[in-house]
Amino acid sequence: MTGVGTGDQAATGPVLAADLGGTKITAGLVTTDGTLLARCTVPTQAQRGPDAVVAALVGALAAVQDDAVAAGAAAPVAVGIGSAGVVDSATGRIVSATDSIPGWAGTELGPRVSRALGLDARVLNDVHAHALGEATFGAGVGRASLLLVAVGTGVGGAVVRDGVVVTGARGLAGHVGHLPVPEAVGVPCTCGRSGHVEGLASGPGVLAAYRRAGGSAEDTREVVARAEAGEGLAGRVLRTCSFAIGRMIGGLLNVTDPEVVVLSGGMAGAGALWWQGMRDGVAYEAIDLVAGTAVLPATAGPDAALFGAAHFARPREGTR
Ligand SMILES: [Zn+2]
User: Fold this and answer.
1) How far is the CA of 88 from the centre of ligand 1 (A)?
2) 130 CA distance to ligand 1 centroid (A)?
3) How far, in Å, is the centroid of ligand 1 from the Cα of 85?
4) Cα 139 from chain centroid (whole Å)
5) Do the beta carbons of residue 38 and residue 73 sit within 8 Å?
6) In angstroms, what is the span from residue 33 Cα to ligand 1's centroid?
7) Mean pLDDT for the chain?
8) How far is CA 105 from the centre of its chain?
9) Domains, in order of start, for the chain
10) CA–CA dist 244, 187 (Å, integer)
11) Is the confidence at residue 318, as pLDDT, over 50?
12) Can you give 178-224 as a three-state secondary structure string?
């Protein structure tokens, strides 16, 4: 991609992008200005093992490419993939992963997709891709730095500075859900430890907290609805969980001082009570100089990770 004469075309052509999670894979073709020209979603087929997952991914990318080119789009110049798991972006290899895709660790994802499609393929963690998407096409546009916090099935995050996501020495950077908060003391976490904010304040964490407190609800949505309707127990649980998220964010403001914080995930859409608890937690924890940092809802939409993966993979003069 560094050959003389290919740079301009490479930098302006569309990029095939994918967001690969435990249950579904979304693929699309992203233009330089952030337009999604084609899009398809297929089941990940995680339980059938890594080979089936890679085949499903390649199939989805090829289908998008065929559809877009048939509709008159330029041929893609690269592939960008945001994948579940910890990723070595230098090699495109999955370093570690949870059981959501059994056997996923060790998969040479980038090289396999590159061979299958005949295009340079770059891979990054899906939350990192999500953050890059918000930074380049969402709530972080025009901001020099951004802290993304995603509160849903888990609690994840990432810091983006000047269009570059901080991945860390081993790809693990941004696992903000595994910060300790006092409210979570004794609460088991998905990582096998305890006391981390994810165990308490993820979507499943909120439901578990409500049940531990003696409440009975079908799902997290019901807990939130009960709180909004004025039920004391649900209100206290939601307050504790959202306050803990705010404390975590406040602590991160003290450490990373981003220009803006962007919140995404199911709990970020949980409503006014959740946001109030979160804001109070930030105010409690953040040092004065950073306490006023804007905390905004995400705006890049459900395809944010596609935009981020495309941005990550796009060839740039002097960087490839
Ligand atoms: Zn943890």
Assistant:
1) 21
2) 21
3) 15
4) 14
5) yes
6) 37
7) 94
8) 18
9) 7-132+303-313 (3.30.420.40), 142-297 (3.30.420.40)
10) 13
11) no
12) HCECHHHCCCECCCCCECEHHHHHCHHHHHHHHHHCCCCCCCHHHHH
The whole-model pTM stands at 0.93
| Average pLDDT score over residue span 83-107 | 95
Q: Residue 187 C-alpha to ligand 1 middle, in angstroms?
A: 10
For range 64-74, the mean pLDDT: 93
Q: Which helix (H) or strand (E) holds 160?
A: strand 155-161
pLDDT value for 244: 98
**pLDDT reported for residue 50:** 97
**DSSP state for residue 84 in the 8-state scheme:** S
Dist CA 246 CA 249 (whole Å): 5
How far does CA 313 lie from the centroid of its chain? 16
Distance 179 CA to ligand 1 centre (A): 7
Confidence band (pLDDT; 50, 70, 90) for 2?
very low
Cα 90 → chain centroid: 19
pLDDT surpasses 50 at 228: yes
* pLDDT at residue 317 is higher than 90: no
In the block, which residue shows the tokens 């960087």?
319
Over residues 188-210, the pLDDT tens digits come to: 999 999 999 999 999 999 999 99
In whole angstroms, give the CA distance from residue 19 to residue 23.
Answer: 11
255 Cα to the center of ligand 1, angstroms: 19
CA of 189 to the centre of ligand 1 (A): 5
**C-alpha of residue 53 to centroid of ligand 1, in Å:** 26
CA of 195 to the centre of ligand 1 (A): 7
Half-sphere exposure of 90 (CA within 13 A, CB side): 5
